[in-house]
Amino acid sequence: MKNSALLATLLLFFCFFCGAAERPQVTIYAMGGTIAGAASSNLDSTGYVSGSLGVQTLIDAVPELKSFADVSGRQVANLESSDVDRTLLLKLAKTIHADLAKPDTSGVVVTHGTDTLEETAFFLDLTTRSPKPVVIVGAMRPATAISADGAMNLYDAVKLAASDSARHRGAMVVMNDRISPAMFVTKTDTHAVEAFQSPEAGYLGGFINGQPYFYYAPTQPVNKPHFDISEVESLPDVSILYSYQDQDDTLIRAAIKNGAKGIVIAGTGNGSIPGRIKPAVKEAMARGIPVVIASRIDAGYVTANDEAIGSGFYNPQKAKIILSLALARHDSMETIRGYFATL
Ligand code: ASP
Hints:
Elements: H1 2-18, E1 25-32, H2 55-60, E2 70-79, H3 86-100, E3 105-111, H4 117-127, E4 134-137, H5 150-161, E5 171-175, E6 178-181, E7 186-187, E8 196-197, E9 205-208, E10 211-214, E11 238-242, H6 250-257, E12 262-267, H7 278-286, E13 291-295, E14 309-310, H8 316-328, H9 333-340
Parallel strand pairs: 1-2, 1-3, 3-4, 4-5, 11-12, 12-13, 13-14
Antiparallel strand pairs: 5-6, 6-9, 7-8, 9-10
Helix pairs in contact: 4-8, 8-9
């Protein structure tokens, strides 16, 4: 008894001093974007080449990461985020799910272009079951800029992915010392470093001196659906159309003709659409092509209407992701309606 207690104490001491068992393991999945961008002048904040630097270069630029985590990098793509597509998204999500299932993995970070970052973050949020942190991060200034924001954003993101307090919170977006919920966050500025906000839901927390803080204990958004993609091989095409004065039914009819399996309309205000496109919307619904009407306004709930499904709290690009995941598992029109009608 005495000997085994002594052995246990020695082992504890050993682990404490070597620190190996204590260190969080974080994988960084690199997708490209401005965070990996390089320009010819350090004043350029446009016209640079996104996705120029490899993941190891990003990691090496922040040696402070080594002080608290074992970080490894995987280059998934090196693209402008406008070129990320649903095939790549599916591959990324499945790779991350396999990584999170390993007992040694503490959390993951995805470096990504900011233009469609919210779509990837939302996709990962809806498809990940693991309580481990999934953190998506980008930068508004290329790595070569004076006062580039990428290095600090990456430090914060890895710190969050390594942090126990970040578990059970779904996917999170880290930018400019703020932590946002993937469910509600959207890009709200084309250039400023403070480019990501959740207009109604707000931030989850932030960072002070590189330490994350949260406003609330771990929580999840009400009615957040989960989609198991383990058996999903491909995602169907869902088109997004934009409403405006003078919109006619040409594009909605073209979408139907081109084989869209679902349609999202960025309507005006509370999802209103011109009367002249309503027959085409009704026709699509009657053919079993769900039409979700979201809003081109950044904030607010879109209620259902006679013609189509209201998107609730989801903006057009997020409504498209839910619709595409629902269609991939052949959900009925009523089930699909239920994902959006949360009030
Ligand atoms: N065009 C870039 C992208 O989304 C912008 C950025 O990363 O901030 O890839």
